[in-house]
Amino acid sequence: MRTCSWVLLLASVGIAVKHVRKAKNTGVPVQGLHDPANASPDEDQMDMVRFLMAHGFETFATKEFIERLDDDLAIDSIDDLASIQEDTDHLSLGISEETAARLSIAAQKELLRRFLSTIPDRKTNKETGVYAKLVDKLYDNGFTDVDEIEDLEDTDAETLGISADDAMYLSQKAEEWEARGTFIWLLSSFQDSNGSFPFREKSLLSSMLASMLAAGMRSLLDVKGATSVPGIPSADVAKLQRSPLIQELAHKQEL
Predict the structure, then answer these.
(1) What is the distance between the alpha carbons of residues 244 and 248, in angstroms, rounded to a whole number?
(2) What backbone torsions phi and psi does residue 229 show, to the nearest 5 degrees?
(3) 164-211 tens-digit pLDDT
(4) Which UniProt keywords apply (predicted)?
(5) Residue 21 CB contacts under 8 Å (≥ 6 apart), including other chains
(6) Fewest Cβ atoms nearer than 10 Å: which of 26, 42, 170, 201?
């Protein structure tokens, strides 16, 4: 009963307090997304609790254990659980190597399933969930995260039981998925000179994200080198190019 009450508490939380996260390959934290004074559980944590309960890890879904995962191991999302086995810190919470391995595999497969479930059928362009059936085959053949699916080649098709065209299609969608995450970080983290975060408003962020992807942008390098992006005012493109994420990237290129 206590676990169920904890889940209900999590579900009642409205807008989540986001933890500071690091953008991929930049080393620059996303600022302004965490308010230390507000200790409410965030959306990622809510999602993690639901995942734990759905996959037979109810004993880890209590309020007390979730707090220990966060405080002791900095784990508060399914993404974090996917790498829980990379070190032995989990042993301090009584999570055995075997259990950590099961948690990691379940989390990795869940992240794959979520990605694959968003991909419309290549032939009909309708979201049928047809590619979600490939989770186990992909995982068993070494494609354990979306980043690795980017490396799919037509020669992998036969092993996976799909066409060469589908293999290349999944690779392209994986690249787009990774870019989507990077651009969300970029847009969410940009802080204007007046202290505001002008691109965080949901509809605006979604619109700008769609425009960036439609323009073929797939990395921070693409943003840095853009002269214009259809659908985004040139002034806003210039603002993004002045963001710490892009400036850090430019600095690394100069070294």
Answers:
(1) 6
(2) -135, 110
(3) 999 999 999 999 999 999 999 999 999 999 999 999 999 999 999 999
(4) Signal
(5) 29, 30, 33, 185
(6) 201
